[in-house]
Amino acid sequence: xxxxxxxxxxxxxxxxxxLYELIEILVxxxxxxxxxxxxxTILSLGAALYVRSNTPxxxxxxxxxxxxxxxxxxxxxxxxxxVLLQDKNVKRILEIESIRKEYLEKTRENMQNISSxxxxxxxxxxxxxxxxxxxxxxxxxxxVVDENSSRDIINRYLDILREQDNLSEVILKEKxxxxxxxxxxxxEIENIQNEILDIFKKDGDLRALKPEEKMNYIVAKxxxxxxxxxxxxxxxxxxxxxxxxxxxLNDKLDIIKETTDIYFIKGQSKVKLILVVGIVMxxxxxxxVAFLKEFIDGYKKRYRK
Length: 305
Description:
The chain is α+β, with helices and mostly antiparallel strands.
């Protein structure tokens, strides 16, 4: 019975992992661990430098679009997201020679069409909106040729947005309509006043009335004329007030406001992460190599015996 217990205890000890023995193995094969770690670090450094060299940089500009129809019909809604959905706008941006050249170089000839042109620009240009303030918009473009070309892209995009703004045209059109209506109303009021003067000349009953009673007499005796007069005066006041309101909108014509200049944004690369992962992987592989070499050495010793 005692012998069996001793055998079981000995087997249990043999199955246990000796921490000191593991450390001894790692120390014995330290150069394998170091060389493997260095090798993986060099590889990760090369990968990091490659990623860094291919990390794109950007230019960005922030704008503010505060638009209101001001109860006017026909005012276009400025939609920054629909610019590249229109073929004519895609063509206009690709009129920038350097950007056009870049597109032609990156796109196979048999794939060059309006769809690939749109996709090319959509990959370059990013439009973002402030979630809390949708009127705050940022236009960002990747620098694929040089900064000047990317500036041209942003400025061309802004030009297209400004062309969507037709508020000034609508205001001028409305002012013309109101002014014409006002002139017609003035003529109609003058005609009514002339009719009243004729009544004063022809109607003898008016001569015996006091000045303040004469208008009441005309209202009572000529109700249609009085209604016409009140109606035209109402129109006149309405048109005058509307023209004043339209004139006040001149201060609000600058719908698209540039809140920042075009500024440079350095692209964020994962250089540090790649280096850290490379070092950790190198250390892990080095330890695995150390244990593998220890296993092979042990196997050779047993085989020689």
